[in-house]
Amino acid sequence: MPSLGLSLIPVVVLIGLLAADVVAFGEDSSYGANQIAMLLAAFVAGGIGMARGVQWKAISDAIAHSVSQTTEAIIILLMIGALSGTWLIAGIIPAFIHYGLQILEPGIFLFAACIICGLLSLATGSSWGTVGTVGVALVGIGSALGLGEGWIAGAIISGAYFGDKMSPLSDTTNIAATVGGTDLFSHIRYMTLTTVPSLVIALVVFLLVGFGGAAAADGISSAFADEFGAAVFAAFNIHIGLFIAPVVVIVLIARKVPAAAALLIGTLLGALTAVVFQPNVIRDVAGLGGEANGFALAAFKACIQSMALESAISTSNDMANDLLTSSGMAGMLNTVWLILCAMVFGATMQATRMLERITRAILSGVKSTFGLVGRTVGTCLAFNVLASDQYLAIVVPGNMLKDAYAERDLAPENLSRTLEDSGTVTSVLIPWNTCGVAQSGILGVATWAYLPYCIFNWVSPLMTLTVAAVGFRIKRLSKTRR
Fold first, then answer.
1. What string of pLDDT tens digits covers the 482 residues of the chain?
2. What distance in Å separates the CA atoms of residue 161 and residue 156, rounded to the nearest whole number?
C-alpha cells in the first residue's frame, strides 16, 4: 500500500488544477477544464501506481467497472434533457411557470419550493426525478419572481434530498440500511432525530431570507408575472390538459417504475401533447411558420429536435424568451462527460489503493463515539470528493466501519444514519461528484453558485455530529438485545 504522502499527490494535483480552472474560466470551468483536470490527476495516480507495481489491467478493469455503474445515471440525464425539450414545446413548463407566478409570492417561494420538492421526493424516492421535473419549473418561476438562482437551486435541492433521504422508495436509503445492517424502517425512524431538525432549520432560513429580501436578484420586476402570462397565452394554448404528462410521470415513479422508463414515457407524452395542443408552436420550431401543408413532417421534426437539440420559444417578452429555452439531450452531454472523467479518477485512486490509504489515515486514533461518528462523516465526505460517487461514499465507509460500531456497542442504526447524513446529502455539493454534476446540469445553475444555499445539505452532517457530541438518543446494541 502506498504511503499517505504519496497517496495525497493526485489529490493535491486535482485540487490545484481545479482551483486554476476556476481562476481561468470562472463558472465555465465545468465545460471542459475540470474534465481535463480529473483526467490529468487520474494519469498522475495511475503513473504512481504502475511505478509501484500495479498492473495497467487492474486499473483499466477498475475504470471499466466504475464507468459501467454510471450507465443508468447517464440514461436518466439524457431522458431529462429530452423531457424538458418536449415539455417546453408542449406548453407544460410555461404553464407551470405561469400558474406558479400567480400562486407563489417572492417572500414564501424558497420555503414553498423546499416543501414541494420534499413531498414529491418523499413520495417518489427520487431526488433526480424531482429536480428534473418540478425543479426545472421552479427555477423558471423563481427567476421570474426575481430571486437569485443560487437560492432557488438551494431550496429545490434541500427539499429533494430531504425527501430522497427519508423515502422507503429511495435507493440510497435502502443501501444505507443494508450496509449498516439494520432494517429499512428502523433506519428511517432513527434518521428523524437528525433529519427533521435539519429540515426545520433550512425552512426557517428560507423563510427569513425570503421575507428579508436577501435572495432577491437585480433587474427583474414583480410586474413581470403579468407580462409573462400575456406572452405565454399568446404563444401557447394553456389549459388543464397540459398537466396530464407530469401527473403520469409522478404516478409512474411513485409506483416504482424505473426512472428512465418513466421519463421516457413523460417525454413521449410531452411530444404528443405538443402535437395535439400546440400546432402553431410545432410549425415554428420546425421552421414552417404559417404553412398548412406537411404538418406530420413538421411534428416529427419539432419533436425530435426538442428532444435532442436546443429549442427556443419566441414571444413578445425578452425575459420570457430567456426562460422558455431548452437544450434537449445535447445540453446534458457536458454533464455526461464530466461524470465519466470523475469516475475515471475515482476508479484509478481505488485501484492503486491510494483511496484506501487516505481513508485509513482518516480513521486512525478514534477513541470515542463522537470521534467515530466524526471520522465516519469525514470518510463519507472524502469519498464524495475523491471517488466522485454517492454510492461509493455510502457503501465503502459502511463496510469499513461496521465492526468499529459494533465494538463500541453502537446499534447499526447509528452507522446507517451517519452514512445518510454525510454521504447522501453532501454528494450534490461537490462540483465533480456525479450528483453535483447532474443537478447542476439539470437546473442550469453552477454547483459553486448553489453550494452555499443548500441549507439542509450543510446542516445534516453538522446535526449528526451534534447529536453524537451530546449523546442524545444514541442507540446501544446491549439494550436492543434485551
1. 899 999 989 988 987 887 788 778 866 777 788 889 889 999 999 999 999 999 999 999 999 988 887 787 788 878 878 988 898 899 988 887 777 767 777 888 999 999 988 887 886 677 887 887 778 888 888 887 888 999 999 999 999 999 989 887 677 888 888 888 888 888 888 999 999 999 999 999 999 998 877 666 654 445 666 777 788 888 889 888 888 998 898 788 777 788 788 889 999 999 999 999 999 889 888 886 555 557 888 899 999 999 999 888 887 777 677 667 888 898 888 878 877 887 888 889 889 998 878 877 877 777 788 999 998 998 899 888 877 778 778 877 887 788 788 888 899 999 999 999 999 999 999 988 878 888 998 898 988 899 999 999 999 999 999 999 998 888 887 665 54
2. 9
Task: Give the separation between CA 51 and CA 48, rounded to whole angstroms.
Answer: 5
Q: What size, in residues, is the chain?
A: 482
| Nearest-angstrom CA–CA distance, 130 and 121 | 6
| Long-range contacts of residues 284-292, Cβ cutoff 8 Å, at least 24 apart | 284/313, 284/314, 285/89, 285/311, 285/313
* Amino acid (one-letter) located at 110: L
**CA-based nearest residue to 431, from 413, 452, 410:** 452
DSSP characters over 227-263: HHHHHHHHHS--SGGGGHHHHHHHHHHHTT--HHHHH
Q: Is the CB of residue 35 less than 8 Å from the CB of residue 341?
A: yes
